[in-house]
Amino acid sequence: MKIFARKDEGGWTDLGGGNRRRILLHTDELMMVEFAFDEGGVGAPHSHPHVQASYVAEGRFEVTVGDRTDVLSAGDSFIVPSNVVHGVVALEAGRLVDSFTPHRADFLA
Questions:
Q1: Integer CA distances (angstroms), 4 to 38, 58, 85, in order
Q2: Which of 95, 22, 14 lies closest to 60, judged by CA?
Q3: CA distance 83 to 7
Q4: Residue 105 phi/psi, 5° resolution?
Q5: Which residues contact 8 (CB under 8 A, 6 or more apart)?
Q6: What are 32-86's pLDDT values in tens digits?
Q7: pLDDT one-digit tens code per residue, 1-32
Q8: Do 59 and 93 touch, CB atoms closer than 8 A?
Q9: How far is the C-alpha of 103 from the C-alpha of 109, rounded, in Å?
Q10: Ranges for the Cupin type-2 domain (predicted)?
Q11: What is the structure's pLDDT at 58?
Q12: Which of 19, 21, 82, 97: CA 20 to 30 A from 13?
């Protein structure tokens, strides 16, 4: 099991639309993923059974979780309960660090 990750490790996956992700670390129970967005990039509304905790590492995002929307900036964070529809719009270029429990097997495929 990998315990430590360095900032220059891990390849980026291009998601299109100015968005990309890279898996930082994962076990069966937990996964940490970095997402990078160009200004105007959209994380389309979606849901999944995983509980998600997200940290805004850089930039500003309009974040919608269920029926609530807020603008979050670097240093802010949010939680997405299991199966709740959520999405983001990058108001400026930025990065999110998301943790998922359990891990996102679909990201590993």
A1: 27, 22, 31
A2: 95
A3: 30
A4: -60, -30
A5: none
A6: 999 999 999 999 999 999 999 999 999 999 999 999 999 999 999 999 999 999 9
A7: 899 999 988 899 999 999 999 999 999 999 99
A8: yes
A9: 12
A10: 35-92
A11: 98
A12: 82
